[in-house]
Amino acid sequence: MAQKQTSRPQFSGNKFQVPVRLGPEKNLKPSTLPPLRQVRGRNKSKTKNLSKIQPAVQSQVSVEMANSTKISGGLRRRDQTHHGKVQAKVRLMRSMLRNQRTSLQELYSHEGYLTKLNKELTKAILDTEESVALSVREMLQQQSILGNIIDILEYSNKKRVQQLRSELQEWKEKEESKTNSLQREVDQLNSEIQKASEEVNFLSTYMDHEYPVRLVQISSHIRQVQQAKDNQQDELDNLREMRETILALFSNLIQEKKKKILKCLVVNTQKPHENILLLKTRDGRRLQRCMVLFRELIEQMKEEIPILLSEVEQMCAELWNPREAVYKDVLLQRPKFLCPKGRVSFLSKLTWPAFPRINGSVVGPDGKVGTG
Fold first, then answer.
1. CA separation, residue 285 to residues 145, 288, 354, 371 (Å)
2. Residue ranges under compositional bias (Polar residues) (predicted)?
3. Which of 24, 181, 288, 353 is 20 to 30 A from 273 via CA?
4. Res. 200 pLDDT band, cuts 50 70 90
5. How many angstroms separate the CA atoms of 42 and 54, rounded?
6. What is the radius of gyration, based on Cα positions, of the chain?
7. Dihedral of the CA atoms 224, 225, 230, 231 (nearest 10)?
8. Per-residue pLDDT at 320
9. Angstrom distance (rounded) from CA 323 to CA 288
């Protein structure tokens, strides 16, 4: 971004010289005035320029005024004749100085106004440039987005057009195939209609001339067929009965042969184990007898168990602690009718009687066979 340079006034070191007439020679003597500096542009503010320039100008003006008063005093001492002219020149110079000051002040004010206006213009230009840049950037972004959208739409439209063209081509082919098939069907139906019309014409002539004769022949043939069916049915019934009798005979023969073969097989298989089988059968019979005996014993014991339990409870109640029996008056305690600990019911000590043995094994009360 271009920077706009602001100009401020700078005074050069050249002095404004005014000719002064001295004596009859009319010599010119330079008189010093406040220097006027030309403006050179640099980037500085108005307040700094004024704060730097005004004190320098005032000091220079005071120095010049002192020098002018000294020069005027010397001139009065040297030559009183030219006093009026010198004063006139001094007044002229003062008026010129005042004019220059006023013009300088106007220049400063004009410069301040111009710098302010220039700053406002630069600010407005920068704002417009920024707004234009933002709008241009947004427009470029929108243009790029719209370009992408247009490209995408063009691509999608092309793909859609291609797809629609392919679909249209397929639809045309299908419709052509359908029309061809329909045309073939129409031709076929026309040929069938032609044949049907020919058959109708033939039947119309047939019904008029040959149908009655054919009807009589058909009825006679139907009667013959029915008679043949009846005869054939009788033959089939006879054949079925013969087949059933023959099959029953053969099945009886086969069953007898099977029984004979099974008997032979059983005899052949039982010969080496005949003694063992006899022992097993005898043991089985013994076990059955033992089981019956044990069931009777179990039922008898079930009947005796409640009686024995009541007797045991009665015996436990009759037991006395010897200490309580001896020191009954001293302890003054009631006897506890409880079965003492460690006493086992006599039922657990009962021994089973000798039970029969089967092949060296003892049969228990529950009917199980165990080793003796």
1. 109, 5, 19, 19
2. 1-15
3. 288
4. confident
5. 18
6. 78
7. 70
8. 64
9. 56
Q: 100-139 burial by CB neighbour count: b if 16+ within 10 A, else e?
A: beeebeeebeebeeebeeeeeeeeeeeeeeeeeeeeeeee
Judge whether residue 188 has pLDDT over 70: yes
Lowest mean pLDDT among 32-36, 146-150, 158-162, 258-262: 32-36
User: What does the pLDDT average to over 178-188?
Assistant: 91
How far, in whole angstroms, is CA 337 from its chain's centroid?
A: 81
Partnered with residue 263 across adjacent β-strands are none
Q: How much is the mean pLDDT over the chain?
A: 73
Dihedral angle of Cα 208, 212, 217, 222, to the nearest 10 degrees: 110
The tokens describing 213, both together, are 């004769």
Tokens representing 121 are 């213009």
Q: What is the pLDDT of residues 43-75, one digit of tens each?
A: 444 444 445 445 544 555 565 666 666 665 555
- Most confident by average pLDDT, 137-146, 210-219, 260-269, 353-362: 137-146
Rounded to 5 degrees, φ, ψ at 205 are: -70, -35
* Residue labelled with tokens 């249209």: 168
In contact, 8 and 49? CB cutoff 8 Å:
yes
Report the amino acid identity of residue 190. Answer: N
Pure H helices in 319-339: 322-326, 328-331
**Secondary structure (DSSP) of 140-195:** HHHHHHHHHHHHHHHHHHHHHHHHHHHHHHHHHHHHHHHHHHHHHHHHHHHHHHHH
- What is the mean predicted confidence (pLDDT) over 172-197? 91
